[in-house]
Write a structure and sequence with these properties.
8 helices; elongated; alpha/beta; 238 residues; Alpha/beta knot; two-stranded antiparallel sheet; Trp Operon Repressor, Chain A
Length: 238
């Protein structure tokens, strides 16, 4: 998979893309991640990427020209080829006003060969970017970040770990939170007795059938308590 990322602060991606599973996946060429500086596609010595909003209001809005230019030039399309670009590349705007990211969408994105992530900043991005350049807009939650870079990293990490060769044990992916429409069951490891707090006897029993039943019940209970809205929804397919 190839992922192009468009930001005015591409340095934010340097350290995370070198660490842990992502770093190993990039080194192994399982995934190709290419950050781009939107300022490189501006005109004029001031490299302006934002301007005041039409109609007034606080803050600044990211201009459309440098974003369109950055995406089309790096991906090899002209402005008259936007439909073709969007048919070949999933172009995603990271914005609080997008659809909320969930495991079902992550799974869907992991089946694409090429993603392009546009990181919003300031008061937002000129709406023409969303209307004419993007295939979708995504949000990672109902809160505000200082920029879309951190949301882009969430998308990258969640998608990458579903790719073959990224996570060592692929079976573990089927038992994670949200993979079956539930939160994951509680996990324990050695020691079995820590400070008088003991691991449930059932998971020390060696009876795998009973352990599986306990895990399912524990997952259901945890979901009802913590995320009751999930308990009333159908499990997502992955």
């Amino acid at each position: 998979m190839r992922i192009d990322v468009y930001s005015i602060f591409p340095g934010i991606f340097e350290s995370p893309l070198k660490e842990s599973l992502l770093g190993k996946a990039i080194e192994a060429r399982v995934i190709d991640i290419r950050p781009h500086d939107i300022r490189d596609y501006t005109e004029g010595k001031h490299r302006q990427v934002d301007d005041e909003p039409f109609g007034g209001g606080p803050g600044m809005v990211m201009k459309p020209e440098p974003i369109f230019r950055a995406v089309t030039e790096t991906l090899g399309y002209g402005m008259n080829q936007l439909d073709e670009l969007k048919s070949n590349v999933e172009v995603i705007l990271l914005t609080p006003g997008g659809e909320k990211l969930d495991q079902e969408k992550v799974s869907e994105l992991s089946r694409r060969e090429h993603l392009a992530l546009i990181c919003g900043r300031y008061e937002g991005v000129d709406e023409r970017v969303r209307e004419h350049l993007c295939t979708r807009a995504l949000s990672i939650g109902d809160y505000i970040l200082s920029g879309g870079e951190f949301a882009a990293l969430v998308v990258i990490d969640s998608v990458a770990r579903l790719l073959p060769g990224v996570v060592g044990n692929q079976d573990s992916l089927t038992e994670e939170s949200f993979s079956q429409g539930l939160l994951e069951y509680p996990q324990y490891t050695r020691p079995a007795d820590f400070n008088g707090w003991k691991v449930p006897e059932i998971i020390l029993s060696g009876n795998h059938g009973e352990i599986e039943k306990w895990r399912r019940m524990a997952a259901e209970e945890s979901t009802r308590k913590t995320r009751p809205e999930l308990a009333h929804s159908e499990p997502d397919e992955v």
